[in-house]
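Per your request, structure below.
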């Protein structure tokens, strides 16, 4: 889940960068931390990371509970609540703890003008629709691409098989006639004559 989120962040960042790179002369001034965080919020990165981390912690908690119940099938509810409390009182790291690394990447690759333009776009109705529809677009594109690639690979495989067969026939036709006849000292020929 976190890998998908990182891929989405990279995809959105690259989309933003491509659109903004079409400008004439870009101001090289890097964006401020506040600008980058505002962009991440507008793009849904912050919420997506928080949700992914929460889901990861919930899965670890559920897995630990299941393992405990398997080991102690007669565990009472009070013991299970204490086990849950271990995870509830030890939260997984949050967005803030990784944000500085992400902020640095944005600052290195985008200008303040780029980020401000992107913030305005992602806060617009069109930007919000794009972010809302992007997961569906990516999923459907992957599904259709997979089917198309499979179809094209089958066509390619069939064409290669036909061409290899034609190549083999061409090679066989060009062989000298004597190449296919057994030689006089061939043991199989000698054995057949003696029988």
């Amino acid at each position: 889940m976190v890998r998908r989120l990182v891929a989405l962040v990279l995809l959105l960042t690259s989309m933003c960068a491509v659109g903004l790179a079409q400008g004439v002369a870009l101001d090289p001034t890097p964006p401020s931390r506040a600008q980058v965080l505002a962009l991440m919020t507008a793009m849904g990165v912050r919420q997506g990371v928080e949700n992914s981390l929460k889901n990861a912690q919930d899965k670890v908690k559920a897995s630990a509970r299941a393992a405990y119940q398997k080991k102690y099938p007669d565990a009472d509810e009070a013991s299970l609540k204490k086990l849950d409390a271990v995870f509830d009182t030890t939260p997984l790291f949050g967005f803030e703890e990784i944000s500085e690394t992400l902020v640095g990447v944005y600052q290195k690759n985008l200008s303040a003008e780029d980020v401000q333009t992107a913030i305005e776009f992602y806060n617009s109705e069109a930007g919000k629709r794009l972010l809302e529809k992007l997961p569906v677009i990516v999923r459907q594109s992957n599904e259709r691409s997979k089917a198309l690639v499979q179809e094209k690979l089958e066509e390619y495989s069939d064409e290669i098989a036909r061409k290899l067969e034609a190549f083999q026939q061409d090679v066989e036709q060009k062989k000298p006639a004597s190449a296919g006849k057994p030689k006089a000292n061939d043991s199989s020929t000698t054995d057949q004559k003696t029988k």
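The radius of gyration is 32 Å.

Regards,
D.
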